[in-house]
Amino acid sequence: MKNDNFKVLLINCNTMMDVLLPVGLSLISACLKEKGVQVKLFDTTFYKTAKETGDEARAKNLQVKKTNREEFGLVYKDTDLFDDLRKMVEEYKPNIIGLSCIECTYELGIEMLKSIKEYYAVPMIVGGIFATFAQAEIIAEDCVDMVCVGEGEYALVELCTKMRANQDITSVQNMWIKQDGKIYKNGIRTPVNLDELPFQDWTIFEPRRFYKPMGGKISMTGTFEMNRGCPYSCRFCSDYGLNKLYANNGGYYREKSIKRLIDEMKEKKERYNLKFAYLVAESFLTTKRERITEFIERYKEVNIPFWIEARPESINEENIKLLESSGCEGISLGIESGNLNLRKNLLGRNMSDEAILNAFKILEKSKLRVSANNIIGFPTETRENIFETIELNRQINVPGVMVSLYNPYKGTALREYCDEKGLMQKGSHAGDYRSETVLNMPQLSRDELLGLQRTFPLYVKFPKSEWPRIKKCEGCDSESEKLFKDLSDLYAQKFL
């Protein structure tokens, strides 16, 4: 018998206090509602699930300004996450529960599903980037009935449509389905056409999810998908795995038409009184010149500040002038490593030091707020290599110095390398790149990497005469902590 009142409960197992709206869940909800399916969200964002937030870790490590999030209602819930989840399931009575997680939140997500399974017999599916590459591990969990591999929009719609009509679901593409002791491993469907998707559904989120800290301020911020995927396949990025997964199925990288993008931005700006936009395009300027020109021209209709990410090779004076004229407020560029050999051969980023220096030289003359993204703790990387990255950052004189800890995420080429070399404990999961590292490397200990991460901006911005004192700050004893605080205060006054 057909169930017209079909209900989906989505669980967003998010890193704590990371309020940037997720495009993926927003689109899945919109697609399901378009087909008459009811959708409700359980969101972990405001539960105390870690020692510190990503923004707190970054502020502590001198990468961003501290913000007073409490005045915008960005405070922790005072109730128990598991009690609240069970209560929602009991009251809502969903026909299926979908968990969306990333690798560093996966273990919490599975705990949540187990806590429900104890009380309620409801089918459970796991999706997201980690699920795409860890499908065998996830389907083996007793609490998991299905895993979504690859894109979820049309796959979830087909699954729910068939479940609602009590039809067989074992052949739904993009799905691994466990049924009657057997696992059905279905292939990948053709990538979705971004222009055919509905606008994102943001009604499932609490209103305070729109308050995003950026540059020391908190603004009503919307997230918009301009492209999906990346034409490059850097070995530390999951786009490497997605490009492989979709290689024989039309390729993973796609661009949304500028008209469709602008129409959605205008609708959302008016509806939610947005003051800032974050554009999801992993390399904003790596596209046809006509597309950039069309975006700049049409963006006048939206007219709110926005932030982008780009690669150094795509920076030229003409592009930057176009961005300045459009209301672009800031841009992040990936340096990753200052060692050419490591950058080219280990990371798959074939760009010269000259290209990086030239890009930042052009940006230095612009009005844009600029930040450089660096990563430390790669396999084979030495302390000397990290100081090559520091030296390259010193040459570019960039205002925002960001430094992440390398984590070997599933689906990346470097994860395969780390597994082969036994650099991470078998069965362990990669952590949050802002504050954790899971590698066991003979040449660099975890404590040494954490010490270098927090002092990285000091090494970049302070004169070399201060380096002996900065080196003392890498430790974690009381004397190191006091010295680090003194230098941090000075750094904040001068550079943040």
CATH class of the largest domain: Alpha Beta
Tell me the CATH topology of the largest domain. Answer: TIM Barrel
Oligomer: single chain
CATH superfamily membership of the largest domain: Aldolase class I
Largest sheet: 7 strands, mixed
- Counting structural domains, the number is 2
End-to-end Cα distance, whole Å, is 62 Å
Written account of the structure:
Helix 4 (about 105-115) links the parallel strand 3 (about 95-100) and strand 4. The protein has helices at about 25-35, 55-60, 80-90, 105-115, 130-135, 135-140, 155-165, 240-245, 260-270, 290-300, 315-325, 340-345, 355-365, 385-395, 415-420, 445-460, 465-470, 480-495, and strands at about 5-10, 40-45, 95-100, 125, 145-150, 175-180, 180-185, 210-215, 215-225, 225-230, 255, 275-280, 305-310, 330-335, 370-375, 400-405. It folds into two domains: about 5-50 and about 70-185, Rossmann fold; about 225-460, TIM Barrel, CATH 3.20.20. The protein is built from 18 helices and 16 strands. The protein starts with 6 loop residues before the first strand and ends with a helix. It has about 500 residues and is α/β, with parallel strands linked by helices. The strands form three sheets. Strands 2-1-3-4-5-6-7 form a seven-stranded mixed beta sheet, sandwiched between helices.
